[in-house]
Design brief:
The structure holds two protein chains of two kinds. Chain A contains 16 helices and two strands. The radius of gyration of chain A is 22 Å and the shape is globular. Helix content of chain A is about 70%, strand content about 0%. Chain B folds into two domains: about 1-50; about 55-140 and about 195-255, Alpha-Beta Plaits, CATH 3.30.70. In chain B, a hairpin with a 6-residue loop joins strand 7 and strand 8. In chain B, strands 9-1-11-10 form a four-stranded mixed β-sheet, covered by helices on one side. A three-stranded antiparallel β-sheet of chain B has the order 3-2-4, with helices on one face. A two-stranded antiparallel ribbon of chain B has the order 5-6. By secondary structure, chain B is of the alpha+beta class. Chain B is elongated and about 100 Å long. The chains are: A mainly alpha, B alpha+beta. At the A-B interface, helix 1 and helix 6 of A face helix 1, strand 3, helix 3, helix 4 and strand 7 of B.
Chain lengths: ~400, ~260
């Protein structure tokens, strides 16, 4: 109690104009920024993986298993910020057991469980099953038993069973694409369906979320692939990188078009809230939205990849440019989430004033906890790559 | 033949296995639903023991803006009656002061929700019009907060009052985001959503909400919407009425007389 009051009292001085008295406390902080960022990476990485299986983009084969494991690592962490943010985390299961059917948020558990169990885990299992059995045969001790357990003690590596696996990987991927759309489009709907908030309330929100998710997912897999490969003493597959950069470029164009459409639509319709939103964008969000999200996170990387595509450049230069572009994109998409979640709470619903968001360093809602949650998927991914090596040379025949 | 029997046995085995699986998976759910039902019965019994039948009522509030003098006694009484934290960040009701200047500027303020009153307006300010607006949960007929609550902890009672079950609220704050009127806050100790209940503990005992009771100018009228003889129905008959943010289709049950276009 004391802590909250101490945190809120100085904020009163920073309020501009008039805000409702209950609006001094900003309710969704860094943790809720992380949640759509993490789920976005899941959906994006999965869509990237599906390009290999469903659309037969052979160049991306080296990143297929890596993308699947990346998606799984981020998905496992995605509910954590939500849980940590609840006033009563011990009641979290109520959302699953007694959901309110009209609540978009109540669907979280079902969408999440479906995606985790029916899509990701199942696809990874079918994809790896044959290899796991072969690995277990050659291994000893605890690793053998872990692998045997993961393969659910199946031993059948006959041609027919492998064919069956392949067929199911494809089927699950086909189911998985709309599921990934559902997973992240649904997160967008949580925000887009709030009619009380004109910054959020937009029918484009789910689809903007989705495409920015694909952008961030491709970018993340590209970064991980580029960091991990040299560490393993292997060479980067430049054809694969070119393809990744191309897809990143195309999806960014779609994403940027959608965001521009949303922006133009708002300005053109110029509804009641336009004045306060214009003030929000030109003042509070200028750096994070105009400078970081649009210029640094979108236009510059788009330009960089475009130059690489137009001009014939040496492979080393390409690698560097792709890497920098992907890093910029990740920062850009993170600020996109920030601008939506935090930006949407900075203005009063009286449309007459703005408040501020001051992040704390310690505590569950603080920067430190946020960074820990953001780092956790990489730890999980490291463990997963030890258990289920996604590399080409680990495959068995 | 023998092969068929084995196949059949396998199928039967599988079927009974699936059945058992379903029973095990659903058991906690059933227990949970039954427990919820039990709780609901308890609440119902408490209300009925009191002689109060929710379905016999339909509550609403009328607020006459021209009568409000901005004394802030309503906001103070509300905090006392409902144990709302005294800090200036948590209000179930508050009063706003509007100043519309000759040059078109508009200033709105509500220092400490009006509990300590307002500062005097300097004589040099050229004011076109000025007035006070008491704010409270609108107990919408179509409440966005109830729609979004993931567990159904906030609900519309049969008498039209929107309530929160704080034993059930998970504290996700989605309802606070969904309320267009800023009428909700998170209780800093209970960590659950809080809002005006029309002083439910009072109205089930035939008393008026605290804010209505203490208002020195009778700017607030509380009463039945479905009974012709109620003072609220008379209020609705005698005045030109407005509600807040009608375009959002929340259908508020707090009705304002002499509402200004600048009030949002």
């Amino acid at each position: 109690m004391e802590e909250i009051i101490q945190h809120l009292t100085p904020l009163l001085r920073d309020v501009w104009g008039y805000i409702f008295p209950n609006e001094v406390e900003l309710h969704w902080g860094l943790l809720i920024v992380l949640y759509p960022y993490l789920t976005g990476l899941v959906a994006g990485a999965f869509i990237l993986a599906s390009l290999v299986k469903v659309f037969n983009v052979k160049e991306l084969q080296p990143t297929y298993r890596l993308a699947m494991l990346t998606a799984l690592s981020f998905l496992l962490v995605a509910p954590l910020p939500l849980l940590a943010h609840l006033g009563h985390p011990e009641r979290a299961l109520e959302i699953l057991v007694t959901p309110n059917s009209t609540s978009a948020m109540a669907m979280f558990g079902f969408v999440y469980a479906w995606y985790l169990m029916a899509v990701l885990c199942l696809e990874i299992w079918f994809e790896y099953r044959k290899d796991i059995i072969h690995w277990a045969e050659k291994e000893k001790g605890i690793k053998k038993w872990i692998h045997r357990a993961i393969s659910l003690f199946s031993k059948d590596v006959s041609e027919a069973s492998v064919k069956f696996d392949k067929k199911w990987v494809k089927i699950i991927t086909i189911i998985g694409i709309p599921s990934a759309f559902l997973l992240h489009g649904y997160v967008g709907f949580i925000f887009g369906s709030i009619k009380a908030n004109p910054w959020w309330s937009s029918v484009l929100m789910p689809i903007v979320f989705l495409f920015s998710a694909i952008v961030s997912g491709i970018g993340m897999v590209l970064i991980i692939y580029m960091i991990v490969t040299p560490f393993r003493g292997k060479t980067l597959d430049i054809a694969c990188l070119d393809k990744l950069a191309s897809f990143l470029f195309y999806v960014m164009i779609i994403d940027f078009t959608l965001e521009s459409l949303d922006f133009i639509h708002r300005v053109y319709e110029s509804e009641e809230s336009i004045k306060i939103l214009a003030y929000l964008v030109s003042d509070k969000l200028f750096v994070s939205l105009v400078v970081i999200q649009v210029i640094m996170g979108m236009l510059i990387p788009l330009g960089m990849i475009a130059v690489m595509k137009i001009m014939k450049s040496p492979a080393e230069l390409k690698k560097m440019i792709y890497f920098i572009a992907a890093i910029l994109v990740e920062i850009g998409i993170f600020t996109t989430r920030w601008n939506i979640v935090i930006g949407g709470q900075l203005f009063s619903k009286s449309f007459r004033g703005l408040t501020v968001y001051k992040m704390t360093f310690f505590g569950l809602e603080g920067l430190l906890a946020g960074l820990a949650i953001l780092a956790l998927p990489f730890v999980i991914l490291f463990v997963l790559t030890k258990l289920l090596p996604p590399w080409e040379e680990a495959k068995t025949n | 033949m023998e092969k068929n029997v084995i196949e059949l046995n396998k199928k039967v085995e599988r079927r009974s296995f699936l059945k058992k699986l379903a029973v095990f998976a659903l058991a906690p759910l059933t227990v949970r639903i039954l427990a919820q039902d039990e709780k609901f019965k308890k609440v119902k019994k408490w209300i009925l023991d009191n002689g109060y039948v929710p379905s016999d009522h339909k509550w609403g509030m009328g607020i006459d803006i021209s009568k409000c003098i901005g004394c802030g006694r309503c906001a103070d009484a509300c905090k006392n009656e409902n144990n709302v934290p005294r800090d200036p960040f948590f209000f179930r009701t508050w009063v706003e002061r509007y100043r519309i200047f000759e040059n078109g500027d508009i200033k709105v303020d509500s220092p400490n929700g009006s509990i300590d009153g307002f500062e005097n307006i300097p004589a040099k300010e050229k004011i076109l019009r000025s007035f006070f607006v008491p704010k409270i949960c609108n107990h919408c007929e179509n409440p966005p907060c109830v729609q979004v609550c993931p567990v159904g902890a906030t609900f519309k009672s049969e008498d039209g009052v929107v309530l929160v079950d704080s034993d059930y609220c998970v504290g996700c704050r989605y309802c606070i985001q969904a309320c267009p009127y800023g009428a909700r806050f998170l209780h800093p100790v209970k960590h659950t959503a809080e809002k005006c209940t029309f002083c439910y503990q009072r109205i089930v005992n035939d008393k008026l909400p605290a804010c209505v009771e203490v208002c020195p100018t009778q700017a607030r009228i509380f009463g039945e919407l479905n009974k012709k003889a109620s003072p609220l129905v008379r209020f609705l008959r005698m005045n030109k009425i407005g509600v807040l943010k009608p375009s959002l289709n929340t259908e508020p049950k707090v009705y304002y007389a002499n509402l200004d276009m600048e009030v949002k």
